[in-house]
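Deviation from plan, reported transparently: NAP complex.
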Amino acid sequence: MAARILDGNKIREQIMSELAGEIRELKAAGITPGLAAVLVGQNPASQIYVRNKVKTCQSLGLYSEKIEMPSSATAGDLLKQVDQLNRRDDVDGILIQLPLPPQVDAAAALEAVDPAKDVDGLHPVNMGYLMSGRPCLAPCTPAGVVEILRRSQIVLAGARALVIGRSNLVGKPLAMLLLREHATVTIAHSKTRELPALARQADILVGAMGKPAFVTAEFIKPGATVIDVGINRLSTAEEIRRLYHDPSEPLRRLEAKGAVLVGDVQPEDVREKAGAFTPVPGGVGPLTIAMLMVNTVRAAARRRAVRTQNGLACEK
Ligand code: NAP
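Because the crystal trials were delayed, the predicted structure below was used instead.
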């Protein structure tokens, strides 16, 4: 039987329409949730990410503000900016777009954000809440993965889950969120031995290591749910021929678009062996900004001690 495609765009739309209901409630109570995005320097990818975040805020009727700082900004300049945003009552969420220029200590900047406004969920206080099972602002991409699984009726309680990758941004928080859903969780990383055999035991397999098409058929238990967090750009025909069994279609895409996106999971193998999987693009990616919006609305409701009726499933 063909594997089920877990459509991230569809799930994103569900979340956004639920969120619109919550925002209406907040607005009726005189509250417009607000997000401030701080961009330091001219990184073109970061500029696109911030633009998309601000645009999504606008489409939902949230207040948003983009704060651009020069690439020469010092750690002190950024801390001063964050301090001002922490003090502003109209700002519920603060996001510092990463990466930061080398002279700015990213950890210190993230720790300066008021945990109540930490919509990226990267402050140690929020990480601690996540670890101890308390309500928190969880990092957006891992929270999005859990939303995909829940809303696709994938059974998590008792399932064996393997997360490949242990970053603070994705792997570690995702493992904690899956544990909170009662999965039996293993985390793998670059020093893990016999990874394919370990992966074959997983009912839920997550690739989050930034290695194009690394998870191949030998990793996948037949019928498993495979979540692909990776986003890798292939820009040469040679890479495509090396990674695809049948490279003809991706080679056509390369010619038309100049690059092909591939996840950490081999796309032909996953279709063949998995029970359900997230495609790249169109799987986990669309959820990240949606969960940032969820966190912004959550932060606004919590800071102002408002309880909305349409609490999303992600509120736990
Ligand atoms: P990261 O910080 O580079 O972490 C990669 C992790 O993968 C590390 O823990 C590393 O292990 C592990 N790893 C690397 N090679 C491995 C191997 N051969 N076998 C097993 N584990 C290995 O990356 P990240 O920020 O977590 O991002 C992971 C991927 O997700 C990237 O492709 C990124 O572009 C993508 N991403 C997507 C979204 C989205 O919105 N969809 C959001 C964020 C990230 P060690 O710790 O031992 O080095």
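The mean pLDDT is 95. We consider this an acceptable substitute for the interim report.
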